[in-house]
What we know:
about 15% helix, about 210 residues, 3-stranded mixed beta sheet, globular, single chain
Amino acid sequence: MFGKARVCEAYGWTEGGWVTFEVKRDETLLAHSVGWPTVGNEVGVFRDDGTRCEVGEAGEVGVKAVTHFDGYLGRPDATAAAWRNGYVMSGDVGIFQADGRLCIVDRKKDMIITGGENVYTAEVERVLHEHQAVLEAAVIGLPDARWGEQVTAAVVARPGVSPRVDELQAFCRAQLAGYKVPRRIEILDALPRNPMGKVQKFRLAELLQSPRSG
């Protein structure tokens, strides 16, 4: 409908402001990319010990910006926790690319650790969304006695389609390392969302761990 339209993407968060920007072009499309840091924003990706990650290494995104917040009203402890080495931290897991673009691959709290391996839920969700029978998908980690966490997916099918779990797993296995493939996939009528439309993964975890879903 809008053949000549330009699609642009900006990334930021309430406390940090808008920090990256990219005009999408077919020849340079990159999954999970949110573009380059914008003027006035110093963006970094950091390890848990506070040191800066190398290019290609995953860590938490932080920013020194011209528009970041000063703090939470009446919450000094929360304000202190939001800062590290002068950067406002996002809670997002990012990876800088060699061309300077930033890719956002997960929320830090949503990252799954299974058998000692890190699994970024956004990567698995992206693959599931590419399946022609999938309308929506959300991936979470559920407790597992052997692996620590089990990669678990909830899928909403497109109208009139009934995807099989083994079919979806095979589709993922063709594009992902074996440890990233969901060991459990549940087909749901809808994903739990908040009033802003964001998937509530804590509610999804409660739902999938309830006796009726087992």
